[in-house]
Design brief:
Length: about 350
């Protein structure tokens, strides 16, 4: 797809052999920055993203976002013909991304050793449930299991109730972001060192969230006390009232909209937040709090984000047009710093046929 302006990864070719969710998400981030993505799918239906909910007018919305700006090609790597086609693509690629169970690519004779011999400059990323090494390596990977292993779920929810997951694919998307970082570092090293050699990156689904666990290891080790669930924004509390948590609290405004309020102790006056916003809708409440020197924000959801002028101004949400759905809003592109005006098309699901039309 030709673009009228340069983007950071223009000219970079990525071969993606991924399925729900981490590897396709990582490849999408590279695509957003201009990389050419050739997505390899199996002939038995391809990436399950194609049929996953939610759907509107039988259009899978998730697939439309994760497959945008990708060229989808069907291949059976057990077929000699398709294997040759795949190897030809690899020789022309900068990056190969896959999230098969460890050992699958090696059994096909297409693991890191074989592919790096074909293309010494190749960068390869493997994302799996438990990584390529260790006693759990052969186990299948699932995002919610990874979140449980990471330590994050143990901190989320009220202490007397069951631990909670957040309402998105956190382990998968965080791992895709970690893989993106690993590839960026590997590309920098490849292109700035004398030998120009490629590199292999191994990401386990739980590791990105485990790395975000801040001081939890030391805290448990030094105090001898297990971690306690204190909410979805540990360690500040779980949407407490003023009396329970005067520092951080959630409030429902007169129009039913929730806001999050942070009191630092340096604000002028000592009027309780609930009294300041009593009877006010969210807009008026936020204005009153701002005038009182108190930081607060609306607790946004997908609907309010899609309509909010701030996110639209930042291009965090983009308007797109679909042949069946008409206009709809899709996630923007990040990080900022380059022109995104040519990236607004929301692609319908590719037909899933071979690129030779058969």
């Amino acid at each position: 797809m030709n673009q009228p302006y340069p983007r950071p990864l223009d000219g970079i070719r990525v071969i993606e052999m991924g399925s729900v969710i981490a590897a396709p998400f990582c490849a999408t981030l590279l695509s957003d920055l201009g990389a050419e993505i050739i997505k390899i799918e199996r002939p038995d239906g391809g990436d399950p993203f194609r049929s996953m909910s939610p759907r509107v007018k039988d259009v899978p919305l998730w697939w439309g976002v994760v497959s945008r700006n990708k060229t989808c090609v069907t291949m059976d790597l057990k077929s000699p013909r398709d294997r040759r086609r795949f190897e030809t693509l690899i020789t022309s690629a900068d990056i190969f991304i896959e999230n098969n169970r460890p050992g699958v690519m090696d059994r096909l004779g297409l693991g890191w050793s074989a592919l790096s011999a074909l293309n010494p400059r190749l960068l390869m990323l493997s994302i799996s449930g438990y990584g390529q090494t260790g006693p759990y390596a052969a186990r299948p990977g699932f995002g919610k299991i990874a979140e449980a292993m990471s330590g994050q779920v143990a901190l989320t929810g009220q202490p007397e109730e069951a631990p909670l997951h957040v309402g998105l694919s956190l382990a998968d998307t965080a791992s895709g972001l970690a893989g993106f970082l690993g590839l960026a570092i590997s590309m920098y090293l490849r292109d700035t060192t004398a030998d120009g050699a490629g590199a292999y990156t191994d990401v386990a689904l739980y590791e990105s969230l485990l790395r975000m666990m801040e001081c939890q290891f030391a805290l448990a080790d030094l105090t001898g006390a297990p971690s306690v669930r204190t909410g979805s924004n540990h360690p500040y509390g779980w949407g407490a009232t003023d009396a329970e948590s005067p520092r951080m609290s959630c409030h429902r405004c007169a129009d039913g909209v929730w806001i999050m309020v942070l009191v630092t102790g340096n604000e002028p006056g000592d009027v309780p937040v609930a009294q300041l916003i009593e009877g006010k809708d969210a807009s008026a409440a936020l204005a009153k709090l701002a005038a009182s020197g108190i930081d607060a924000a609306r607790i946004h959801d997908g609907d309010s984000i899609a309509k909010d002028a701030y996110f639209l101004h930042r291009a965090d949400v983009l308007a797109a047009t679909h042949e069946k759905l008409g206009e709809l809003k899709v996630p923007g592109f990040m990080p900022h710093g380059y022109d995104t005006t040519g990236l607004r098309r929301f692609y319908p699901p590719p037909p899933g046929k071979r690129d030779d039309g058969s």
